[in-house]
Amino acid sequence: MIFEDFAEFNLAGIPSVDLSVGAVKPERFAAAQQSGTPLPQLRSAAWAPDHAPTLKMAMVVETTELMELPAH
Asked: DSSP per residue over 29-62, as a string?
């Protein structure tokens, strides 16, 4: 989950990463791109992610990212 003060961790020297994963059906994204109509933003009441594929992809990306981090 993203918090408004998330950037403060990095500014304090704490290594951090902000992971973003697309959450809209590809057809809806393409239609918005073609029409120039902006999609609802993250904190909008109209934001409607495509839940199952979004969660699956986020888990795959985060797991892969963590496995690829160099050991400190």
From this structure: HHHHHHHTPPPPPTTSTT----HHHHHHHHHHHH
pTM of the entire predicted model? 0.64
What is the rounded CA–CA span in Å between residue 17 and residue 44? 23
**What are 57's two structure tokens?**
């992809």
Torsion of CA 49, 52, 55, 58, to 10 degrees: -90
Confirm whether 38 is domain-assigned.
yes
Task: Report d(CA 37, CA 71) in Å as an integer.
Answer: 44
Task: Tell whether 1 is covered by a domain.
Answer: no
Number of domains in the chain: 1
Q: Provide the residue range defining the domain that includes 64.
A: 6-68
Phi, psi for 41 (deg, rounded to 5): -85, 170
Region 17-30: what's the mean pLDDT?
Answer: 87
